[in-house]
Amino acid sequence: MKKRVLSALLSVTMVASLLAGCGGSTTTTTEAPAEEAAPAAEEAAPAEEAAPADDAAASTDKFYIYSWNTELGERLEYVYAAYPEIKDRVEYVNVGDSAIYQEKIDQLLQTPDAPDYPDLIAFEAGYIMKYTNSDYTLPVTDCGLTDADLSEMYPYTIDIATDQRDNSLKGVSWQSCPGSFIYRTDLAESLLGVKSPEEMQAKLATWDDFLDTAREIKEKSGDATRIVSSNGDVVNTFMSNKTQPWVDKEGIFHMDDSMLQYMDVVKTLEQEDLTQKTTQWSEEWNAGPSGDSVFGYFGCTWFLHWVIKSNCGGEKVGEGTYGLWNMTQGPAPYYWGGTWLGATAGCSDTALAGQIMKGLCTDTEIMTKMSEETLDYVNNKAAMKTLSDAGKGAYDFLGGQDFISVFSPLAEDVDVSWMCAYDQKVNELLDTQVTEYSLGNKDKDAAVADFKAAVAEAYPAVTVE
Amino acid sequence: MATNTSRATKVKDGAHARVMGASIFRNAVCIFLCFLSLIPFWIMLVNATRSSTEIQMAFSLIPSTHILENFQKLLYQANQNVPLYRYMVNSFAIAGFSTVLSVYFSTATAYGVTVYKFKGSQFAWAFIMAIMMIPTQVSSIGFFRFMYNLGLSNNYIPLIVPAIAAPATVFFMRQYMLSALPLEIIDAARIDGSAEFKTFNTIAVPLMKPAVATQAIFVFIASWNNFYTPSMLLSSQKLYTLPMFVQLMRGERFRSDYGIIYVGLVITILPIFIVYFALSKYIIAGVALGGVKE
Amino acid sequence: MAKPAKQKRKTVEYGRYGYYFIAPFFIVFAIFQLWPLIYTIGLAFCENYTDTMFNVEVGPVFNGIENFKTVFIGKDGTLFNTYTFQSLWNTILMWLMNFVPQILLALVLAIWFTDTRVKMKAQGAYKIMTFMPNIITAATISVLFYSLFNYPNGPVNQFLLESGLLSQPYRFFQQKWATRGIISFINFWMWYGNTMVVLTAGVLGISPSLFEAARVDGASSFQIFKKITLPLLRPILLFTLVNSAIGGLQMFDIPKLLTTSGYGDPDYTTRTITMYMRELAFTGAKQMGKASATSVVLFVVTLFFSLVLFYIMRDKDAIRERKQNKAIQKEIARKGAK
Question: What ipTM score was computed for the predicted complex, to two decimals?
Answer without folding.
Answer: 0.81
